[in-house]
Amino acid sequence: MSVSGSASTPSPSPQNLRVVMAQLDFLVGDIPGNTERVIGAARRASTEHQADVVVFPELCLTGYPPEDLLLRPSLELRVQEALQRLQDEQLAPAIVIGAPIREGALLYNAAVVIEQGAITGRYFKRFPPNYQVFDEKRYFADGGDVVTLNIRGVPVGITVCEDIWKDGPVEEAAAAGARLILNLNASPYDLDKQARRKALLERKSRENRVSIVYVNLVGGQDELVFDGGSMVFDHSGALVVEAPQFSDGLFPVDFLCEHHCQPVSQPLPAEPSVEANVYSALVTGVRDYVNKNGFKSVVLGLSGGIDSAVTLAVAVDALGPDRVRAVMMPFRYTSSMSLEDAEAEARALGVQYDVFSIEPMYDAFMASLAGPFEGTSPDTTEENLQARLRGVLLMSLSNKFGSLVLTTGNKSEMAVGYSTLYGDMAGGFDVLKDVPKTLVFRLANYRNTVSPVIPERVITRPPSAELAPDQKDEDSLPGYDILDQILNLYVERDFSADAIVAEGFARADVDRVIRLVDINEYKRRQAPIGVRITERGFGKDRRYPITNGWKSGK
Q: Crossing angle for the helix pair 359-368 and 380-401, nearest 10 degrees?
């Protein structure tokens, strides 16, 4: 079924159309604030860019993903008030926004078109996704109609996010006469997501001989980061406009619509390196999590190791040095190198830096435990006590000064449980939670190309938790170059143990790593959230039962 909005007939003569892509950051749940953001952006698009149409991201009125806020009884009232506010504003350009719309007993993920103070069209998303981090089918019904509208005399088709990844919506809109497709998105970032988007849009535009405007959300929402990267492909499949990733703004595009709607090409941004792209994602995730949740500052333990060094750099780049506090908490096993390097990092980045020894606290605890521990030998209990004392100090600073504690564990460590519950896992946000250790090294080198803030020996020295004399990570783990490959196959690609061994890895390494991953699910369930940068992060992506009898061999 095809549904049309305005009944006006497209002009047979060439029609100019200026579309502004509103690549903006919205706050989940703040419907009044998001509505004002839409109004302000539409006004600027009109006065600064003479926009005919302004296209906003998916579910921009509620922010994305709103999750169980969609189940609140007052949702419909708040959305209706917002839509009425937008109509009353009598905005000069047509606007295309995302909002949840209820029709009868069903809720839809919708695109709404407002022109000259009236709703002239609605489109209901046809393929709500239900995989990876998405669970839209928990809330939304499937739409069924094809919607084409004449906007400023141009036949335009509307789709929402996942619809463009499926066969049907774009094809049917083009068959119904649309010469331009507007696609509203809230597409989260991962390492090669932009390349996959480009390949898809190239094919869809070329096969259907229709130009596509792809508008994406930008900003951080809990573990998700949205990278923007809004784009326009012409009817031949050529990329002619691309907004920079991780940049909030309004991006105008001119179209000359005759037989086709041909966008006027613009210089494309340089392709960022993987390291630069990931680093931008981490900065965006930290900045939005801290600011949107109202934290005044952050505090983290600075150990002299590479993970805390990269975390500190990200925090400063996200928030500025005045909002970051670094704390070194040495013990008898802390090397002079670690003390020197931690201080050098703090000075290079200009943050408040404190040194609090945990030695007297450790001695007090061990004195109290002397009775029950009598006759036992030191083991990981004493090591974990060191980490837990550091966690107590950081959480106390958090409580006293309203600072968010940033933890520093990377994905490799989180996978195999190389972390201490209520110790180095104590905190509110883990910047590197989805970053494998081998990528942490690359990020450190990348950040030093911007300005040298991480001492070279922090990058080159063997990683160590320094919880015991001469301790090295590789004493209890395979080398990180091997470990990360095994983890990628098992965690992100669901290979069995036998399949990983068939890839050329030693059986002993594979069995040990898989066992560590499986038995440490209970730890990960209690870990703070962190920025997701891969297709399979620990969080919404990967949901395994803690108690289970699954055998991972085959």
A: 120
Extended beta strands in 249-364, E state: 249-257, 261-263, 297-301, 324-328, 352-355
- How confident is residue 12, by pLDDT bands cut at 50, 70 and 90? very low
The one-character DSSP state at 444 is H
Question: Mean pLDDT in the chain?
Answer: 92
Per-domain residue ranges of the chain: 2-262, 276-473+522-530
Q: Annotated binding residue at 265?
A: no
Identified catalytic residue from 58, 172, 223, 466: 58
58 is catalytic: yes
**Residue 78 neighbours by CB under 8 Å, 6+ apart:** 31, 32
Amino acid 468: pLDDT: 65
In terms of Cα–Cα distance, which of 182, 191, 188, 259 is closest to 214? Answer: 182
Q: Is residue 171 marked as binding? A: no
Residue 523 annotated as part of some ligand binding site: yes
Work out the average pLDDT over 384-392.
Answer: 94
| Lowest pLDDT segment from 34-38, 217-221, 477-481 | 477-481
| Per-residue pLDDT tens digits for 405-452 | 999 999 999 999 999 999 999 999 999 999 999 999 999 999 999 999
User: Which tokens is 458 given?
Assistant: 């922090």
Residue 289 among known ligand-binding residues: no
User: 411 an active-site residue?
Assistant: no
Contact 20, 55 (CB under 8 A): yes
- For residues 487 and 411, the answer to whether their CB atoms sit within 8 Å is yes
Residues in the chain: 554
Is there a binding annotation on residue 242? no
Question: Helices 306-319 & 274-292, crossing angle to 10 degrees?
Answer: 60
pLDDT at residue number 539: 84
Question: Which CATH code fits 2-262?
Answer: 3.60.110.10
Confidence of residue 543 (pLDDT cuts 50, 70, 90): confident
Q: Which residues pair with 216 in a beta bridge?
A: 185
Query: Is the pLDDT score of 142 beyond 80?
Result: yes
Res 99: pLDDT: 97
Q: Is 125 a catalytic residue?
A: yes
Q: Which of 60, 161, 257, 261 is catalytic?
A: 161
Find the farthest-apart pair of alpha carbons in the chain and give their distance in angstroms, rounded.
93
What's the rounded mean pLDDT across residues 207-230? 96
Residue 7 has pLDDT above 60, yes or no: no
Give the residue among 433, 423, 425 at the shortest CA–CA distance from 542: 433
Sign of the CA dihedral with 373 first, then 375, 379, and 382 last: positive
Fold of 276-473+522-530: Rossmann fold (3.40.50)
Q: Which of 60, 115, 125, 172 is catalytic?
A: 125
